[in-house]
Design brief:
mainly alpha; 4 domains
Length: 594
Amino acid sequence: MGLIAKTGRKSIGTSFLLLGILFVLTVGAVTMVIPFLLMLTASTHTQVDRTAFTVWPAFLTDETVLYQKYLSAKYNESPSVLRAVWETDHKSFQGIELQQSFNRKRAEAWRQFLLETDVPLHEQVAGFTYTPASRGRPWNERRFLRAQHVAFDGSISDLNDVMQTSFADWNAFRVLPPDTRSRLGLHADTPWWRAWNAFVQQEVPDWAKGTHNLTGFYRERIQAVMGGEESLTPRPPEEEEARARWELFVREVVHPGYVRFAPQAEPAWQSFLQKRYVTLETYQSITGRQEARWQEIALPASLAETGTLRADWLDWLIGWQDPGSGTTYEISLDAVHLVCVELTWRDLHGEMPPYRDVDQLLFEENRAAIRKLFLFQNYGTVWEILIVHGRGLWVTVLYCGGAVLIALMVNPMAAYALSRFRPRHSYSLLLYLLLTMAFPPMVTQIPLFLMLRDLNLLNTFWALWLPGMAHGYSIFLLKGFFDSLPRDLYESASLDGAGEMRMFVTITLSLSKPILAVIALSAFVNAYTSFMFALLICQDESMWTLMVWLYQMQQQYGSGVMNAAFVLAAIPTLIVFLAAQRQILRGIVVPSEK
């Protein structure tokens, strides 16, 4: 029966009262839903929209925001790389707009040219690989991780042995792509980089990688400091100041993969090696080569052809000083030239490649795949960290399941004994149990830690389960509920020959489902949300629960990944509450109806 009778609801005052109650409930529901929607939206954030405060991801409906997110991921969240490629003055990705119109034919021609040209890896931008600003785990890094995980059967030690790496585990797996425009981006030819380069060539789609603009890099690094307006040329310019800028760029700044040596410099190369090694025996022992005369040593045209002479080739380009005489040996500037796809295109077409046009073309052709990627990539990261490469979920399931099971065994039995047999000092026992609630959990954690350490139970499930087996308030609550059950039921069952355990199971527990649901829900929530206790008792990473994992992830990942983790972490509590709500509501409604 309702609080307000049907006849009373017909009055205007009652109608306004009901409308007011409905309005308050609606406002309350909205204030609970909006924070969750904000967290849900934040779980899709990257560098571009990480400060946005909306209840709906803008990139799902706004093409400009999606384009900005795409460019940010493609250029690895580096505005400086984008500025050099596009030769623009954009300070960030947020200010970029879609072009209303662009030369689609020219963009198609440039893309076809790249497909038909063997573009060296040092000229490529492997996008979706590095997120220094948003601190996520980008798409291509995750794909490369999965490929290596399969290749090495999940053994990180085997990967470290073969790849010459030192990852502590799969969650420590990282790809830090070098800036291959500059000398600093030069790295050793190791199995790790060979595997990564093969992955970029074979697995990364065209829309997820780009091509460096060497002229834009030259203007950013050299002309911005030394002045000048000339375009970068393959060979050194004639004008003295421009030649000095070109020489500085080639000898000290640009990645040596772009540099080529002319064959006419071979005699000078042989002379340089003779000065450096003095004797052929020294040269042969250090380089492992077998030339019998200095005149037989060929000049490698490019860095890729140097082999064991890689360091000599680089030193000759930079300039090597003989420690004995102090003379500097370096290749003549006129014997050096630059090679890259951009310069080749300019020679053929007389204009710069349409970098911006092809970026927009690739975006428009792959818009659906890009939107889906940004919608789920942070969730994929959390899934891999917590479930695929970590034991957080499984440890939490066992911990919570065991905690609920033990709580439903120990607490009801203790409460049944106090209610059924009514010992002489039952109220003193209840008072003692309730006194345990007077002390915050932090006070008992150190004694618990010392006790479990002495029992040699640290980093085990028993260390998690045993301290929470009995709960004073739960026993108090259960005893009060058991006291309300009719005593006649027990007397009848006893006359029929039922034992105490039979009466406990068939009568007490079967009639106590609502309160048992409350106890189970409380035990689950206490175990699921336990952080400090779980971290103190189980410091081994293999025994971390989800809450400990979430805390540790905050040190390494940004807000997008963390909000995705919070959304996924909220799902188990929602499922458990929905499963238990029928029994909880039944315990509230049924007694009032009686």
